[in-house]
Structures are given as C-alpha cells and as structure tokens.
C-alpha cells in the first residue's frame, strides 16, 4: 500500500535483433534468452511481447552485407523496414520503435561516415535523416537515434517534417556514455568498431554536467523523449535529467548489465528474479519513465 515505486509492463520496451532470411531464431551467445530473428520470427516474437502487456519493441537490424556508407541502413527493403511492416500488420497495441544508427550497417563499425580514420559528423546527418524517414514510411511509430552525432536530432526532425511525418516522435539517446557495458550488444549486432573507439562521439563516464548539456541540445533540436544509457552505472544521471527536464525520460538497461546478471545467475551466485526486480525498480526509482531492457519478458512473466 505504501510502496513508492511501482513498475508496470506498460513502461517497458523490449529490444529485438532482426536478421535476413526466414524461419531464423538463433540464440545470441552474449545475450542468453535473446535471439536473432528473421522478419517472420520477429513478428511472432512481437505478438508474444504484446500479449505480455509490454509497451513496445525497439528494432535493431543486421544486414546481409555491410559497406563503408552503411547503405543497407537506409534501404527501403532493409530488414528493419520489413520487420516494422510485419509487426505493425500483426500487433495493434504494441509501439514499434526503431534504432537509428549506422554502426550495424557499416563495414568499419562506426556510427558515422569515415574519412581517413575520423568520423565525419556533418555528412552523416543526411544519412541518419534518410534512415529515419525510411523507418517512418514503413510504419515506425517512434525513431530513436543512438549515433551521438552532433545535430542529428534537428536533422532527423527536419527530414521527417519534410517527408510528411511532422508528428512522429523522436526518442533521443541524449546522454549516451562511451561504456564497456555495450560489449555483448556489439557481438549481438556485429557492430564493434574495426579501429579506434567511440569516445570521440559518446560521452566520458565521469561527466554529469556534460550530460545535461547534451540533453539540452537534443531538447532544443526537437527531441520528444530523452534517454540515458547505460542505466545502472548512471542512476545519478537519470535522476539529474529527471529533475531538470519535463520530457519523458527513458533509460536503457544495456546488454552488459543484462549479461552480468545472466552469467551470475547461471552459476547460482545470485537470485535472478530478485536481482531483476530490484534492478529495474531502482532505475524507475531514479526517475526513468520508460525502461528499455532485455529482461522485459521475464520481468512480466515473473509477476513484475
Ligand atoms: C548503436 C547502439 C548501441 C547500443 C544501442 N544502440 C551500441 C554502441 O553504441 O556501441 C547498445 C545497446 C546495448 O548494449 O544493449 N549505436
């Protein structure tokens, strides 16, 4: 009765990894319990997610082929637009969010175009906007840019407006840290940078004032929701963002956070159900309205 924080399924978003082909459902080594899914299987998975009362899914794509410009990322017949169409056709309640970033589609694994060994911020913006429009045309209901290029929220907003999607919301990965906790995702999305790292465009872990500046810029450019990522090592950032901004705040309980729990649980070192409930509740208590988490289905199945 007097419990202060309650976390319900309608605040959770479950990530899906879409691959080419049909009938593919292959467990991801670094994310036990999560799968690489072909479009048909992704639609099936989405139905199950919807039946659990989970708010939405966020889609990541692994293309057939990668190239330096990440062409498959903004191809109209790419795996993500196909999956969006299939899921929207089957699921009427589920919110379909797409991740907008080049790193899953580029041969070098960086989130932007490369010249020499430098990421080219401004030339990347047009491609990100194109990707967001392609997702919107397929039926995505929210686009979520995760690339951390400067100015991308504004570029995506203008692109969507011009393409006839003026009211499509942008969930911006606004405070995204250069984190070791993305390790398992990079195996899942085959997106590890082939040289260098992402510290030139992602944030330095010790900084919180910088996070506020990054969030403010995204809000000024037209973000409708703002995300902090990762979640657990940055609960203070979630709280600070919550207190300074009125927009809905999302937090991404990332792959490394999930994989650590899974690994320890498999060894019998922790009680997985209790750890997951405590973890997700702490993220909500810190101030997140929405939580993106690989634990979403388990959390709901275990009674929330
Ligand atoms: C793409 C992207 C990443 C994640 C979400 N979108 C990886 C990265 O920046 O390297 C990480 C999600 C996770 O670890 O669960 N830029």
- Encode the helix/strand succession as letters: EEEHEHEEEHEHEHHEHEHHEH
Strand content: 15-25%
Give the CATH architecture.
Alpha-Beta Barrel
What percent of the residues sit in helical stretches (DSSP H or I)?
25-40%
Description:
- The chain has a single domain (9-301), classed as Alpha-Beta Barrel (TIM Barrel).
- The mean pLDDT is 96.
- The chain starts with 11 loop residues before the first strand and ends with a helix.
- The chain has helices at residues 39-51, 79-90, 121-138, 152-162, 183-188, 209-221, 235-244, 255-266, 272-286, 296-301, and strands at residues 12-18, 25-28, 31-37, 56-61, 95-100, 113-115, 118-120, 142-145, 171-176, 225-229, 249-253, 290-293.
- The strands form 2 sheets. Strands 1, 2, 3, 4, 5, 8, 9, 10, 11 and 12 form a 10-stranded mixed sheet that branches. A two-stranded antiparallel ribbon has the order 6-7.
- Helices cover 38% and strands 20% of the residues.
- The longest helix is centred in the middle third of the chain and has 18 residues, at 121-138.
- Helix 1 crosses helix 2.
- The chain has 304 residues and is of the alpha/beta class.
- The chain is built from 10 helices and 12 strands.
- Helix 2 (79-90) links the parallel strand 4 and strand 5 (95-100).
- Bound molecules: ligand PBG.
- Residues 99, 101, 103, 111, 146-147, 182, 185-186, 198, 254-255 line the site of ligand PBG.
